[in-house]
Amino acid sequence: MDRLNVPPPGPMDLPMSLLEMGCSGRFELITHPVPGQSLPPHSTLPHGLPPTNLNLETEVEKQFLRDPAWLPIHDKDFAFQKFLKVTQRKVDVDSLLNCCPSPLHSGLSVVRDPTTGMLLDFTEVLLENTGLSAKNSLSLQRQPGPPSESLRGSNTNYPFLPGGMEELTLEQIKKKSELEEEIDFESDLLKVAPGLKAGMDFTDKDAKIAKPEVNLMSLLSTVEGISGLQLEEKEKDKESEDAPKLPRTNSLEDLGIKDAASSSSPPEKGKEEKSKLKENTEENKKWAIPVNITSPCDDFHKRIPNPAFKWPFELDVFQKQAVLRLEAHDSVFVAAHTSAGKTVVAEYAIALSQKHMTRTIYTSPIKALSNQKFRDFKNTFGDVGLLTGDVQLSPESSCLIMTTEILRSMLYNGSEVIRDLEWVIFDEVHYINDAERGVVWEEVLIMLPDHVSIILLSATVPNALEFSEWIGRIKKRHIYVISTLKRPVPLEHYLYTGNSTKTQKEMFLLVDATGNFLNKGYYAAVDAKKERTSKHAQSFGTKNTSQNTTASQDRSVWLTLLHFLSQRQQTPVVAFTFSRTRCDENARSLDSMDLTTSIEKAEIHSFFQKSLTRLRGADRQLPQILLMRDLLKRGIAVHHSGILPILKEVIEMLFSRGLVKVLFATETFAMGVNMPARTVVFDSIRKHDGTGFRNLLPGEYIQMAGRAGRRGLDATGTVIILCKAGVHEMADLHVMMLGKPTLLQSQFRLTYTMILNLLRVEALRVTDMMRRSFSESHRDTQTHEKRISQLKQMLSAMPSVDTEGQLSDLLPYYHTVTELKKTTEAVQHAILESVNGLKALSVGRVIVVNNKQHLNALGVILQVSSASVNRTFTALIICEKGNEEGKDNDNAALPHLHNTSLFIPEGPCSHTVQKLKLQDISAITVKTLKVIPERIIDNYNKRQQPRFKLDPPGQAISTATQELLRLAEANPGGIATLDPVNDLQLKSVDVVEANMRLRVLQDSLRDFNCIHSPMFAEQFARIKERMSLQEELDQLLFLVSDQSLTLLPEYHQRIKVLQSLQYIDSGGAVQLKGRVACQISSHELLLTELLFENVLSPLAPEESAALLSCLVFTQNTQVEPHITNTLQEGIEQVKSVAQRIGELQRECGIPQTAEEFVGQFKFGLTEVVYCWARGMPFAEIAQLTDVQEGTVVRCIQRLDEVLKEVRQAARIVGDSVLGSKMEKASLAIRRDIVFTASLYTH
């Protein structure tokens, strides 16, 4: 606004002034201006409007024209073009507003001429569920996410709905929320619109119908319509007659209706479908179906005329059965020995999915196994990808090989790969027994969606059916179980006692190829060993207990044995040794042995050199590599976790070519790595399993021994057990060789990652996951539910109980009686378990007996059984004449509880000898009798025989009976009994309390009126029956509910921990910290806390890498690391954070102590990692620590995965500095020998 020049105020001017309010154009009148101020409009903005934009011209001038960098003096044309470009920009304010367009609710569909296929028209069709996305829906109908997330998914995605999780049933959908109200379109429509006086009249009026003109065409069309209708209806009737009657259910899954993909399979399918429907409608479904593999499968080629994959050999029966099941798109569980050919099943599935244009995921527990399978399948199929923690090769392939952990994270993160998935193959399923990682298998099996079929391959396990039944039940689909115990190459097991050239032939057959245990061989071995024990030892007895032998003894045994085996051409040999140092020592001690020819030496040398070309010069000179090169040339090798990964692969490849003649290996070699040998030797049969030494389990022994015998090369495989110190116990050997392999057991446990991942999706509950775990598989909810409905019906059908008048206190009486029974039992158990109690219940003690036959009868104990559980007492009891056998006067009303008067026979007194249980003895009296139990029992038993039936009772019996009768008559109102607390000296709190409670209850019983009622017994029986049903019902309802889950208390404890650390809020919604923890696969709490407390911020990249090594390193070291002060502080901080978390967990009730929690983080490798990240060569690093090279490499590789996770987490928090630091750290450790690519993947 231009300023107005107003003259100064004169004497005639009114004292008024205007005040401009802000910049909106409002003015206010000021009537009492401050004197001496001029009149022009004042403003609340004394300096005018705030600058909305600076003067553009000067800006442009300054930035472009006066800036020599931008407008050079020489190349003016170019600069001018550039200038024009800038100046010609149009202002586009809308571009600042950014919102995603909402998805279209309709699409176009084409109308075609049915005969010619020409386009006639486009119609608009409404689309359903257009608003679904990976952020709000579990459905497969949702839109695919961005391509960058298609492989691994994102941790904000919902997973796809796991198969077998119940969708909403009709009942749940019918239940309305409070906000919805029913609108009745018939009666309560509003007739008057708001604001109007008159309204509409909706009543039906008969409209006058004008007669239409009759038109021939219209008539014809109506006639046609009518006849058409009739025809259609007839057809419909026919159809409905043909259509099988499907049971009505709430969800499609129950119908067993398969998806469209299966309809393309052979016509067999139709029959199967029908039989399936029948099975499904049956009362009790069995999910696991064992497949009979004894009868040969003759019509295999007829049923599958053009298989998806052909092998050069004829398949075994079990393989054919599996292939048939795969063709029908069913899930299978194949349990067979190693080398029986389970891979055939996996190969067929991969071929099928390539034929169907779908995908297959093959998971294995071990990275090395994944790499090998990748090479094998790559050679067979070509289109194969690999995903492990650090490698990602062609992830778009139709067959993906990965470790189980990666599949789990893909499922939780809703990866798009899952949409196209047809098969998931789980190899080595017996790994589910692994305490640390077994839970991952269960999570994956539970989380897999419905359209994915499952193939499980496992070593032989005894409970394959039970396991498959569990999977079938949680997935609501049949699992076909195919298990075979046949070995393609049978095994022979020997004991070897030789230790010198003289004794080198001492090999004794212990179990022959058909599986018979030969005792003869065992004793021969014992004798052979005995002959050599020195005369001195023999004079002191033959037990040579020491299992340990000296290195020189070992050396002579191995030299002798290998010499003997190579003479007999029994190589290659795998020698299983259960300690890494022992492996190395044994291999080194064979320095005089040479098992290869010169041609083989040349081949080994060239392969070794070629494989090492990918290492840097210095790394090729590592001591381990030089040592191994020397051993390999002589045909000897070592394989355990301490060997460098690249060397391990070289050794595996040379071994599979038959160039390694003797391989000293630990147990890991038997796990998965498919490398059969001619002979397997066990150095010992004891191993250390982390807690102590124990014998090998049958499963472990079978797994390792199964490496003997190469299919197609050997007739039998040889397994040799060395007897170095002495021959092992026969019982141990028998159990180990012929025992049952380990059962598959659930290792399910709750992890914070699992809880957080499920909490961030409202539709999935953690309790659902727990209920579906294998550990809860004994909960057969279906049968429970059925029984519950039965019980409810029975209860409603029962006659009502009469509780009028005198019987009004019947129910409280019942409760008192039941409590009395329970308390009595508890006290009696305490008596039986105590020394004094057993003394009191000894021969000759007079007792009061109550059971179906006797009511408060006196008896005397004659014999006490020696069994500690369910102890029985043989007693002589008095009874009525004629009631010796005992008529069942089942007095359900338990009259003895309120009636203490003793039984006195009305007629002549007779007796019976009975075995009593503890609950039959209702009291122990203070009296004892002198009895001669043997005579009484013999006499009684004699008189039970028909010919002595009428003999008079013997002297001993009649005396005892008379005594008992005298006692009863002397104390008709009840006899003094032993008190558990005062007489039997049971002073524990429980017993004292129970005893006092008993007195109270017994006294209260006398005050009840109902016992005097004539109807009492009948009504009591009714109420008892009713209450027992009710109790069973309550028990079942409890079992079906979440409250009975074994892990539920722990779940609440863990939730408490998460809440107090603010990972979730009180309502269970996942907070930022929880989102971060979802990214991290192990030690999630500690890592997240470190992130949020900025422990890593002050550290350099290499220091943070060194600090985080505590999360992946698990061994103890003897070497004290030398580290920088900042790192030392970092370690202290990590320990204090861990201590805090440990204490918090303890407070919330988790049974792990804070010390144990802190103790799992080992800092032995901090120095090594620090130096490695700073670029020190590997050779020098190996000198810094006593940890073996292979372990160091494995740790640094796993550390790289942790660094990646921390980088992701830092990105979520928005800490870009930390993110880039982690990237630097990751780059610093990814070099040289630690990250050489696997030989299998190239």
TrEMBL record:
- What's the domain of life for this entry? Eukaryota
The subcellular location is: Cytoplasm
* Broad class of the protein's primary localization: cytoplasm
**InterPro entries reported in the protein's UniProt record:** Beta-barrel_MTR4 (IPR025696), DEAD/DEAH_box_helicase_dom (IPR011545), Helicase_ATP-bd (IPR014001), Helicase_C-like (IPR001650), MTR4-like_stalk (IPR048392), P-loop_NTPase (IPR027417), RNA-DNA_Helicase (IPR050699), SKI2-like (IPR016438)
**What protein name is recorded for this chain?**
SKI2 subunit of superkiller complex
What processes does the entry annotate via GO biological process terms? nuclear-transcribed mRNA catabolic process, 3'-5' exonucleolytic nonsense-mediated decay
The Helicase C-terminal domain, residue ranges: 594-759
Gene3D superfamilies reported for this sequence = 1.10.3380.30, P-loop containing nucleotide triphosphate hydrolases (3.40.50.300)
Q: Which reaction does it catalyse?
A: ATP + H2O = ADP + phosphate + H(+)
Biased region (Basic and acidic residues) positions are 231-245, 268-283
Tell me where in this chain the Helicase ATP-binding domain is found.
323-479
| Region (Disordered), start-end ranges | 137-157, 230-283
Keywords of this entry: ATP-binding, Cytoplasm, Helicase, Hydrolase, Nucleotide-binding, RNA-binding
Q: Name one GO cellular component term.
A: Ski complex
Q: Which GO terms describe its molecular function?
A: ATP binding; hydrolase activity; RNA binding; RNA helicase activity
Pfam families membership: DEAD, DSHCT, Helicase_C, MTR4-like_stalk, MTR4_beta-barrel, Ski2_N
